[in-house]
Every structure is written in C-alpha cells, then in structure tokens.
C-alpha cells in the first residue's frame, strides 16, 4: 500500500440534505515509523525539530537517531507490544521523542495533562493501566515529584507501608537534571540499549500494522469521568496527512507550535503534520507565552503558526505586537474552540496568514473531520468550519436520527478512517458514542449548507470549552460534593469574548455553613487543574428545576448572563 495518500480533492455536489460523502481513493496503510523512515531518507540533513528553551536543533537524521535510542532503551526496560507508556510533561524534546519512539515498538503512548492534580493523575493512570511513566519534575509551580511520591510512597521509601495508589506502574522515568530516588533519569534511558535491543527494535517495527492502537487521549463525558480514546497509526497519521495537505505544507515550511503536545492539536496537528511533510517543528517554550511565541516566529522565520483563539488574541493584544516582523507567516491552524469571525479576519491581515485554516472535530476523530479551504471564498473561511475532510462522511441529524434538510440545525456525526477504535476498557460508553453503522455522534449542533459547509451553532452536551480546554461540569461538581459545607453544586458555561466560555458555579450550602468564594476557590485549586476553577460563583438557595426534579441549567445560564450584564452597567 502507498505510504502517502493519493487522494484527490473531494467533489461536493449541490445537495438538499445535510450529508457529505467521502472519496473512494486509498489512504495510507503505513505505520508512523514507516512514514518517518521515508521522510528521513528524503530529507536527512534538513532541520526537523527546534526546541528553543532546551537549545535543541536537530536534522531529521539526528532526530531519528535519538528516537531510536529511546525506543531501544524502552525495550531494554522490557516494554512489550501494547504496554501503556504515560507521558506527564509540558512541551519539550523528551515528549516528542517518546511520541515517535513508542510508535516504533508497538507501545501505546498515554497523554497526561500537565495540569493534572494527584486525583486526576491517579484516575487516568489506573483507568488504562499505565505501566511506564515518563514525567517532568515540575511545571508552573506544581511539584510533580511530590505528587508522584504521595501516590507511590514506596517509590521514595521501599519500606513504606502506605498505600500505593498506582499499582500498575512498574517504572518511573524522570525528565530533568536532578537524580531522584526510585526514578530512572531520562538521560540514562537513552543509554540503556545494547545491540540486541536495536535488533529487537527492527523486528518489532517490521511486525506492526497501521490498525494497531498507538495513542490514548483522555476526553471526558457528561458524567465527568475521563475516557481514554484509543487512536491507531492509521487514525492519526492520515489525519496529519490531510491537515498537511489543507495547510499546503512541504519540506520548506517551519511550524511554530505553542499549543500543548498532550492534546491532539499539538501531537497530531503539530508534530505529525510536520513529520509527514518533512517540515520543521519549532517549540517556542514549555508552555504558551505570547511574547515568546512572537519572538520565535520572527527569529525562526516560521511559515506556520498554530493556536486556539485565545492564543491569537493574547498575541494581538501584546503591547509589542507591532514591533515584530511576522511576514514569513503563511499558514497555520486555529482550532480547539469556536473561532470568532473578527479574529480570523485579523489573523489573515495582521499575521499575514492568508492560508490559515479552521479545523473542527474532536479527540475521538483523531482529531479533525472538518477543515476550511484556502481557495474558498473568504466568508466560508471565517464563518464556517469548512467541509468534511478527505475519506470522511459527515451528516447532520435531527432529534429522530434522520438526516436533516440543508439549513436545519442538528447533531454533527462523522464516519471514516478518523473515528477512534473505542474508549479503553469501556464498551458501554463506546457504544453510546459510535452507533452500529459506525457514525460517531459529536454532541455538537451544526448547520450544513448546500455545498457541504458546516457552521457550529451550539452543543447538546454540557461541555464547556474555555480557551481550547474541554471542561466537564460533573467533574467539578463531584469534587464539591466532597466538601463538608456544600449541599449541592451546579456548574455550567457562559459566553466569554476572550476565552470562548467561562465556567460558572451555583452553589447551595448546608445550614450554618460559613464558606465564601475565596474558600471555595482555594479548595478547588487543591483538587483540580487551574483552568477548571469557576470564574463566577454564586451562592443560591434554590435551583430552577422541572416538575420531575431535573436541573434547568439553561435557565441558570440566562440568569447569570443577565446578572453580569447588570453588574457591568452599574460599574
């Protein structure tokens, strides 16, 4: 089978129903490591990856050598096909090496959010039985070492009788200069392999198939419990190929990647998009900073820039924005949240990104199933999420499950190579998301026009998207239920010009309770990632409810918006 997609551009005939079909051309059946080998052979001396905060500049040949050192090192530790290797770290070269190395040896990389607190980390690790954990030592004031010692006391003290909350983990590998008790330094992992391990790596690599799972990405449901979406080589490699095609990427491009790698945006639309096209991946820092990003674009002469809308807003609003020469920019992807039309127009003009595209999808779709087209009329580029990607079917359905007429809103469903294999160990939730015909139900509401362009109009689910981060109310509510002075909690989102949405909390207290907003925020900060902490908190005595006792969050949302508007007028 061909390593690269031979698909031609889809034809979108005029239609009266909200459905777009897929092409019948073959797609890549290669594994990630097979495609990487082809790129290394084609561009051995071309710069492949630049990590500015670690002073790393490697050609494809150098990058591949380092990837193989890590892959063989994992084999020296005893990693077997299908073993889960967790990566808990901000953006760095080690993250990229683990991504590519696991793909070579049939291990499954598990992406762990760098903002996780101990409870969240423990749930994710035990949910998919992570066996090997690669972790940073700290990030943004969070002491990862203290957290992991707290969850695995025997790691620090072999004689400890305290409960080990991570029983699936057999080895912890630390990124950083300090040598830590019970952990293997990443630098030592890179030197473990002997000739036999490299031979084993070649054998393992040749035995892999494109349908094997290679990655687990966590995405939560309305219950608030994270679910591990299983993605294969075929899923994410082909998604990267088609996004690269939409961006018109080639080996001359240099893509600035300030988005986090733990998310599909950075991992697939960043690292893999660069690899499949022979382009250079440029990491400006461990985490997003608008000034650092602008400096990186100018100094590295980047031709592409990724970001969620809030990142582009932060860059535009930086006081020194006009001082930077961004004329090298041409393309990029804006995704992760609703992309305001006005912002897209500014990116076109002020960033010189005439070929920037909007991507829409979800983790379960690897992640993109819709994308805008740079040769379409400007209104379609800034007001819609484009049309179905190659080899992907998309339909809009009504409440009865029938395909809706053009112009009528309904749930967006997708089917094709991009749909995940399922949620790890959860057949019931998989069945609730992917129907018997293979359609993945997004929970998002959209409208399709007669040429297949889709506009997002809302969400069926309660999910909140704040600055590109998916937030699920029930997860926050469950933590609040554990508080001694809380009677009930209701979390929902309201529109926000900067972040897309903000998290709101309506709280019922027990009789005699004395907690205030500051107490609640401090409590939540100890249990949840920072982006999940509600911006607006109201203590109430009653909730709007139906006669059957169900909460009416839409009424809470309406009332909260009115209250905030009234407060703004008074101010």
Structure overview:
The protein has 571 residues and is α/β, with parallel strands linked by helices. Among the domains are: 61-208, Rossmann fold (3-Layer(aba) Sandwich); 464-570, 2-Layer Sandwich (GMP Synthetase, Chain A, domain 3). It has 18 helices and 29 strands. The strands form 7 sheets. An 8-stranded mixed sheet has the order 10-9-6-4-5-11-12-22, sandwiched between helices. A hairpin with a 3-residue loop joins β27 and β28 (500-509). α2 crosses α3, α9 crosses α10 (264-277) and α11 crosses α12 (309-316). The chain is globular. It starts with 18 loop residues before the first strand and ends with a helix. The model is unreliable at 1-11 (pLDDT under 50).
What is the top-level CATH class of the domain at 61-208?
Alpha Beta
CATH architectural designation of the domain at 61-208: 3-Layer(aba) Sandwich
What's the total count of β strands? Answer: 29
Q: Which ranges are low-confidence, i.e. pLDDT below 50, for 5 or more consecutive residues?
A: 1-11
The total count of helices amounts to: 18
The percent range for helix content is: 25-40%
- What overall geometry do the principal axes of the alpha carbons give? globular
Tell me the radius of gyration: 24 Å
Give the termini separation: 65 Å
Q: Oligomeric form of this entry?
A: single chain
CATH topology (level 3) name of the domain at 61-208: Rossmann fold
Strand order of the largest sheet: 10-9-6-4-5-11-12-22
């Amino acid at each position: 089978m061909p390593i690269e997609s031979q698909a031609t551009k889809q034809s979108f005939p005029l239609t009266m129903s909200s459905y777009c079909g897929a092409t019948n051309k073959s797609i890549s059946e290669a594994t990630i490591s097979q495609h990487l080998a082809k790129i290394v052979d084609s561009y051995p001396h071309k710069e492949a990856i630049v990590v500015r905060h670690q002073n790393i500049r490697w050609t494809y040949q150098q990058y591949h050598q380092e990837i193989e050192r890590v892959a063989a090192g994992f084999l020296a530790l005893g990693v077997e096909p299908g073993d889960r290797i967790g990566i808990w770290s901000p953006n760095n070269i080690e993250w990229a090496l683990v991504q590519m190395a696991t793909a070579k040896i049939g291990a499954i990389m598990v992406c762990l959010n760098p903002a996780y607190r101990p409870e969240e980390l423990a749930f994710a690790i035990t949910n998919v039985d992570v066996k090997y954990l690669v972790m940073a030592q700290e990030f943004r004031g969070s002491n990862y070492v203290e957290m992991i010692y707290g969850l695995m006391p025997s790691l620090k003290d072999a004689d400890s009788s305290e409960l080990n909350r991570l029983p699936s983990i057999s080895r912890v590998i630390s990124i950083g200069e300090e040598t830590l008790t019970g952990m293997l330094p990443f630098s030592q992992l890179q030197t473990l392999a002997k000739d036999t391990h490299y031979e084993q790596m070649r054998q393992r690599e040749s035995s892999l198939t494109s349908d094997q799972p290679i990655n687990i990405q966590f995405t939560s449901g309305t219950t608030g419990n994270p679910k591990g979406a299983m993605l294969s080589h075929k899923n994410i490699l082909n998604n990267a190929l088609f996004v690269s095609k939409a961006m018109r990427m080639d080996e001359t491009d240099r893509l600035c990647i300030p988005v986090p790698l733990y998310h599909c945006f950075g991992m697939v639309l960043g690292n893999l998009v660069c690899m499949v096209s022979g382009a250079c991946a440029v990491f400006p820092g461990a985490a997003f900073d608008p000034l650092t990003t602008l400096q990186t674009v100018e100094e590295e002469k980047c031709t592409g820039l990724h970001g969620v809308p809030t990142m582009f807003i932060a860059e535009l609003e930086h006081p020194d924005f006009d001082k930077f020469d961004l004329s090298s920019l041409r393309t990029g992807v804006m995704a992760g949240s609703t992309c305001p039309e006005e912002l897209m127009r500014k990116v076109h003009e002020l960033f010189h990104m005439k070929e920037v595209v909007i991507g829409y999808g979800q983790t379960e779709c690897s992640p993109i199933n819709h994308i805008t087209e740079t040769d379409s009329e400007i209104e379609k580029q800034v007001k819609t999420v484009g049309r179905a990607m190659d080899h992907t079917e998309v339909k809009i359905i009504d409440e009865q499950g029938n395909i809706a007429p053009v112009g009528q809103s309904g749930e967006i469903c997708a089917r094709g190579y991009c749909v995940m294999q399922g949620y790890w160990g959860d057949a019931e939730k998989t069945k609730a998301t992917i129907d018997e015909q293979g359609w993945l139900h997004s929970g998002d509401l959209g409208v399709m026009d007669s040429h297949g362009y889709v506009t997002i109009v809302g969400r069926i689910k309660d999910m909140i998207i704040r600055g590109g981060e998916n937030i699920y109310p029930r997860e926050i509510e469950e933590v609040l239920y554990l508080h001694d002075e809380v009677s009930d909690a209701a979390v929902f989102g309201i529109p926000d010009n900067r972040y897309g949405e903000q998290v709101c909390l309506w709280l019922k207290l027990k009789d005699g309770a004395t907690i205030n907003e500051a107490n609640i925020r401090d409590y939540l900060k100890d249990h949840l990632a920072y982006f999940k902490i509600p911006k607006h908190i109201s203590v109430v005595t009653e909730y709007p409810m139906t006669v059957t006792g169900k909460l009416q969050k839409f009424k809470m949302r309406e009332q909260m918006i009115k209250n905030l508007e009234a407060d703004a007028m008074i101010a």
